[in-house]
Specification:
The strands form two sheets. This protein has a nine-stranded mixed beta sheet, sandwiched between helices. By secondary structure, it is α/β, with parallel strands linked by helices. The protein starts with 9 loop residues before the first strand and ends in a 5-residue tail after the last helix. The protein has one domain: Ribokinase (UDP-N-acetylmuramoyl-L-alanine:D-glutamate ligase). α3 packs parallel to α4. The protein has ten helices and 13 strands.
Length: about 325
């Protein structure tokens, strides 16, 4: 099956919104040890909101990104929504649950730029029928649905079903890893984009190099997803689909933080598909988007602008 995406529509993101609390230091402390960090900062995060910012900065048309999710009635929630609106994201369906705190995530970044994330999902965890109604109400104006696994799997599943029924391309980031998934979950996604750890969880194949990434991608296709993209971090990505199958080498950048690289990747992929690019060119755009994010600090702050991403894309060696 060749992936065909409706061009020019909205990109709806159904997922989590968090306030990220960043600590940078040489290493994590050992149990019972106090070990001084180097710096602390806060910034907007959550896989859904990160992807929304990535789409907003990369898309050619303002208002392309529509964020469907939930925050608490607190300063963090108000700040998250305000910053997304400043980015040009449609937040009409970013709801407030006054009974919950906004989601937060404590993120530690070590001297190798590796990140360790401890989230408390708060209002994200109470997403329910209202979010499904919000998505189904706009589905006819949507080209791509970006879904993750931070909010209720039932909500995500219903939105994916609605998208498939309406001819909307579904891109699933299977993160964070869940112990169980609904039986039809993978088959409802047109594109799935796991990293090495997530690919191993879904397939049982330990992904450590290009060859094992290929095996995992092919296994994911057998499980019902037409396009499987296994991300290898600084080693690139492997794609398996009817349209194209092969390895994508990484762009050479100096890593600063890997916090939102996967979210930047999916944002670039969604924008490429919405602009009518094939899977191969869309993955290249996603690769460049992820590479720019890796070379910047923060989560939402790391998302690249169109010009920066296209400049990096122009350095690609055929």
């Amino acid at each position: 099956m060749t992936l065909e995406t409706r061009m020019g529509g909205k990109i709806a993101i159904v997922g989590g919104l968090n306030m990220d609390l960043f600590i940078q230091g040489e290493r994590l402390p050992h149990p019972g040890e106090t070990f001084e960090g180097n710096s602390f900062s806060t910034g907007g995060g959550g896989k859904g909101a990160n992807q929304a910012v990535g789409v907003a900065r990369l898309a050619r048309n303002p208002g392309t990104a529509v964020m469907i999710g939930q925050v608490g009635d607190d300063p963090f929630g108000r700040e998250l929504v305000s910053s997304m609106e400043t980015e040009g994201i449609d937040c009409e369906f970013t709801r407030v649950d006054a009974s919950q705190s906004s989601g937060v995530a404590l993120i530690f970044i070590d001297d190798t730029a590796e990140n360790y994330v401890l989230p408390v999902y708060g209002a994200n965890a109470t997403c329910g029928p209202r979010q499904v109604e919000d998505f189904t109400g706009i589905v006819r104006r949507v080209s791509v649905l970006l879904a993750q696994q931070e909010i209720s799997m039932d909500v995500t599943l219903e939105c994916m079903r609605s998208a498939r029924d309406a001819g909307v391309t579904v891109v699933l980031d299977p993160a964070p890893v869940r112990d169980t998934q609904p039986e039809e979950f993978l088959s409802l996604a047109h594109v799935i984009t796991p990293n090495q750890h997530e690919a191993e969880s879904l397939t049982g194949i330990k992904v450590s190099d290009v060859k094992s990434a290929e095996k995992a991608a092919l296994e994911l296709r057998k499980q019902g997803t037409p396009v499987a993209v296994v991300k290898l971090g600084e080693e690139g990505a492997y794609v398996a689909s009817v349209e194209f199958e092969g390895y994508f080498p990484p762009f050479k950048v100096t890593p600063v933080a890997t916090v939102a690289a996967g979210d930047a990747f999916n944002a670039g992929l969604a924008v490429g598909l919405t602009e009518g690019k094939g899977i191969q060119e869309s993955v290249w755009l996603a690769m460049a988007s992820g590479a720019v994010a890796v070379s910047n600090e923060g989560a939402q702050e790391s998302m690249g602008r169109r010009a920066d991403i296209e400049n990096l894309l122009a350095t690609r060696v055929e």
